[in-house]
Design brief:
Elements: H1 3-6, H2 24-46, H3 59-73, H4 77-88, E1 91-95, E2 98-102, E3 110-111, H5 112-115, H6 121-156, H7 160-169, H8 186-190, H9 192-215, H10 221-274, H11 278-284, H12 286-302, H13 311-353
Antiparallel strand pairs: 1-2, 2-3
Helix pairs in contact: 3-4, 6-7, 9-13, 10-12, 10-13
Length: about 375
């Protein structure tokens, strides 16, 4: 009998990389740090003070905690990188398919491999993917529940206008595709078997199209066209609003850039103003003086009263605009996708009715006919 089973012990693969890699050096550094912290806290308590920190963390353990926290909330690498920097002031570097992290108090990056397998690129990218899928499934569940509630309200209401408005507000993306015109499909004309597959696929899409217009209460072709025009107008408006927010954000980012440039070179410029030999001083510091003067010129041009903006206020404005941009993107993407779907429906209805469809079809990803 195997000794591990006989003694009821768990088997450990000593050759497999550790999920959390803690070396002897880090282990002893943590123990020494905790001991010193406990001694300091005892002295603070003796003096009648409450210690602010009771658990000592090595720099590597701080990184692990920050990575775990940020990764649990991230849906992609960009989310992860932004959260690490904003919440923990930890910088992420990606080089040759490897993640490395810079502790706020270090000058050298620590690789994910030194922290453990759960802090490397492969594991984290898979985790981001799972987070995104979980969020998407959650969103679909909420959308379906919301759709059921709205449908019940609409059915109970005698007002057709209210029914149409509730449907125009709610949009759940479907898998509808354009009906293929066999006359324009060269491959179908050359291959009879492929043509049959296209015909079957067209029948499926026509059936789904008919189910869609019945479900959404489109009684006439005009009502469908009116709905498309309305959503298209919303998409255009939301796109303009998004562009406006992006323009404002770009302007604020410029102001933050030049304000930082102004403040960074101001001490050198003040010395230049006080220097007895200004020509020599300018020759010794040409870059700093040029950067200061260009930043000052830009900022004065942006100011109506000649006052330079506060960095604190600029950063607060940037945060507000970033939130507005996120909401504006959600709104625009919603109406853009809705417009594409209704365009597909309109095109399919025209083909079912045998009417010419003059509208340019929206670009769609190509897919094999099933």
């Amino acid at each position: 009998m195997d000794i591990c089973h006989r003694e009821h012990l768990h088997q450990i693969d000593l050759l497999a990389p550790a999920e959390k890699k803690i070396t002897d050096r880090e282990y002893h550094a943590q123990r020494r740090g905790q001991k010193k912290l406990d001694e300091r806290n005892r002295q603070l308590r003796a003096d009648g003070l409450t210690p602010r920190k009771t658990n000592f963390q090595t720099q590597k353990e701080f990184l692990r905690s920050a990575i775990e926290d940020a990764a649990a909330l991230s849906h992609c690498q960009e989310d992860f990188q932004n959260l690490l920097l904003a919440k923990y002031n930890v910088k992420l570097k990606v080089s040759r398919g490897r993640f490395s992290y810079l502790h706020p108090e270090r000058g050298k990056y620590i690789t994910g491999r030194m922290l453990g397998t759960h802090y490397e690129e492969a594991y984290l990218l898979e985790l981001f993917k799972e987070n995104a899928e979980r969020e998407e499934n959650k969103k679909k569940t909420v959308d379906v529940e919301k759709y059921n509630i709205e449908s019940e309200k609409a059915a109970a209401s005698p007002s057709n206008l209210l029914h149409e408005e509730s449907l125009s507000i709610l949009f759940i993306k479907s898998d509808l595709r354009l009906v293929v015109d066999l006359q324009d499909c060269i491959k179908a004309q050359q291959n009879a078997a492929y043509a049959n597959k296209v015909k079957l696929s067209n029948l499926k899409e026509m059936a789904k199209t008919v189910a869609y217009i019945q479900e959404h209460g489109y009684n006439t072709r005009d009502s469908l066209e009116n709905s498309f025009s309305e959503i298209k107008s919303h998409a255009s408006t939301s796109r303009k609003e998004l562009k406006s927010v992006e323009d404002n954000l770009r302007k604020v980012n410029e102001q933050i850039h030049y304000t930082g440039q102004y403040l960074a070179n101001k001490p050198v410029y003040q010395k230049f103003v006080k220097a007895k030999n200004k020509g020599q001083f300018r020759q010794e510091h040409p870059a700093e003086i040029a950067l200061y003067e260009s930043a000052r010129k830009f900022l004065k041009g942006q100011s109506a009263d000649g006052q330079l903006p506060s960095m604190k206020l600029l950063k607060a404005e940037k945060e507000k605009l970033l939130r507005q941009k996120k909401e504006a993107q959600k709104t625009y993407h919603y109406y853009r996708d809705y417009q594409k779907e209704l365009n597909t429906i309109c095109s399919n209805v025209d083909k079912i009715l045998g009417q010419p469809h003059t509208r340019q079809p929206e670009k769609q990803k190509s897919a094999d006919i099933s």
